[in-house]
Structure formats: C-alpha cells, structure tokens
Design goal:
Distance between the termini: 48 Å
Number of helices: 8
Oligomer: single chain
Structural class: alpha/beta
Helix content: 40-55%
Bound molecules: NADPH dihydro-nicotinamide-adenine-dinucleotide phosphate, 2-hydroxyethylsulfonic acid
Length: 254
C-alpha cells in the first residue's frame, strides 16, 4: 500500500483523486484542506463504497507556513510514511486586466499557488525521501503554458508551478523521487465560483455551450501516471476538453 497526501482534497480535482485512488485498493489517503466538513463528507462517501480504505484527514491552510510544518511534522505515527504528494490546492481570484487588478487577489494567488505549494513540498520531503517510490504530482494548468487575456497573475503563478516542477525534477533526481506535472484546461469544479467570489451565474457561464473536463478526467490520468513502473516517469501532461484549443479559444454550441 502506498500512502498519498492530497492537498485541496475538499473539492474538485483533489476530491476526485481521492475517490478514484480509493477505488483501486492500493492507496492509503491523507486528505487536507481548510474545509474539514467537506473532508469528513468525502471520507464517509469513500468509506461507504470502500470500508477498508484507510483515510486520515486534517485541516490545513497551505499559506500558513508554521501550520504546514507543525501539522506535517507531527502526523500520527501510523501516517508517518508518505510515498506520493499531490500538490493540488490552488485557486484563481478575479479576472481583471493588470491595470484593474486587486493586489489582495494577487497576494492570495501567489501565497496559495506558489508559496503554499513550496511549504507543503518542503514539509513532506522528509517522508518522500524515506519512500522507495517517492513521487510528487504538481497540478499546473494550461495557464502554466500560456497567458490569456486577464489571466495575468494566475497565469504567472501557474508558470511558476511549471518552473518549480522542472526544478524539483532536477534537484530530487538523486533522491529517486519522481516529479510529474498535470496541466488541465477547463475543468468544471468550484474553481470558477471561487475565481468570481461566489457568483454562481458567472461561474456557470464559463462552461456554457461546451463540455468541460471534470475532476474524474484528471484523477484518471493521475491514476495512470501513478501506475507506471518504477523506471518510468511521466514528466508532463497537458489535458484539455475537446472543445478547447488553447488558453483563450473554445468552440461553443450556439
Ligand atoms: P476547487 O475550487 O474545486 O478546489 C480547490 C481546492 O483547493 C479546494 O479543495 C480548496 O479547499 C483548496 N484550497 C484552496 N486554497 C487553499 C488553501 N489556502 N489551503 C488549503 N487548501 C486550499 O478547484 P479545482 O479542483 O479546479 O482546483 C484544483 C487545482 O487545479 C488548483 O491548483 C487549480 O489551479 C488547478 N486547475 C484547475 C482547473 C480548472 O479549470 N478547474 C484547470 C487547471 C488547473 P478549501 O477551500 O477547503 O481549503
Ligand atoms: C484553470 C483553467 O483556463 O481558467 O487553470 O486558466 S483556466
């Protein structure tokens, strides 16, 4: 049994990863996020389907460096073995041109998507170093590869994730830790609702007239990546809805 730690497991891609990996009966799950009620509901849902799946949940705000270190260095003894880290927690805030952008939104994206990912990675590395099959999966985005109108700071944070992914692969090579980036296009999750600060109507419009990806589409790819033998690493995957050509161009039914 390998143990997977998933950040941002309370929703969307992270929650779908937990469900998909639980079904395989090959993984123990450590799930964290800020909303512990959602984590509890997810744990119950998984355990109804699969009562033997071992799951540990805890509250974590990845922006809080002290809390990240304190929580991850004092995991219960039976959870002090982690083989896989899925750096999934992340968000976008607003969709504005640079001239209209809100610096608080910028800080929130940089603190979560870049600094939070770094804090968690550093805190989990001592466990991964002890694993015979250490693996980090970083969730990037099409926004890590391209910049689209008004995507500015979100795109910058995801470009940073892309750079860190490549840097981790170099630095962790001697430790035998695999590093993979998964870069999705549009996935219908809570992402747009969070980006538009609770505006459900505007969030829904993002996906109107096309079939976006869903969290399970991404989780299936991650399951495949994790199932490769020890000598194979998938470096980077860009996965898009069929109706999306790049960061800016989609084809919608009228
Ligand atoms: P959701 O909003 O559905 O999920 C985001 C998750 O991140 C939630 O579980 C949330 O948990 C967690 N999170 C946010 N901020 C923090 C924080 N400070 N500390 C801990 N956890 C946090 O969106 P997605 O599932 O779509 O997003 C997952 C990842 O996928 C993100 O990195 C996103 O950038 C990326 N992505 C999304 C795409 C999309 O179109 N949806 C496309 C490409 C990439 P909680 O609020 O409980 O803390
Ligand atoms: C989320 C997808 O297209 O909004 O990373 O940047 S997009």
């Amino acid at each position: 049994m390998r143990t997977v730690l998933i950040t941002g497991a309370s929703s969307g891609i992270g929650s779908a990863c937990a469900e998909v990996l639980a079904r395989e009966n090959k993984y123990r799950l450590i799930l964290c996020a800020r909303r512990t009620d959602k984590l509890g509901q997810l744990k119950n849902k998984i355990n109804i389907e699969n009562p033997t799946c071992a799951i540990h949940t805890f509250q974590l705000d990845v922006r809080d460096q002290e809390a990240v270190l304190a929580t991850l260095s004092s995991l219960p003894a039976e959870w002090q073995k982690i083989d896989i880290l899925i750096n999934n927690a992340g968000l976008s805030q607003g969709l504005d041109s640079i001239q209209d952008g809100n610096p608080d939104d910028w800080d929130r994206m940089i603190d979560t998507n870049v600094k939070g990912l770094l804090y968690v990675t550093k805190a989990v590395l001592p466990y991964l170093k002890n694993s015979a099959r250490g693996h980090i999966i970083n969730i990037g985005s099409i926004a890590a590869k391209e910049v689209y109108p008004k995507g500015n700071v979100y795109c910058a944070t995801k470009h940073a994730v892309d750079a860190l992914n490549k840097a981790m692969r170099i630095d962790l090579l001697p430790l035998g830790i695999k590093v993979t980036a998964i870069h999705p296009g549009m996935v219908e999750t809570e992402f747009s609702e969070v980006r538009f600060k609770g505006d459900k109507v505007r969030a829904k419009q993002v996906y109107e007239g096309l079939t976006p990806l869903n969290g399970y589409d991404i989780a299936d790819v991650i399951s495949f990546v994790l199932s490769r033998p020890t000598h194979v690493n998938v470096n980077d995957i860009l996965i898009m809805p069929s109706a999306q050509a790049n960061g800016a161009i989609t084809h919608r039914n009228q």
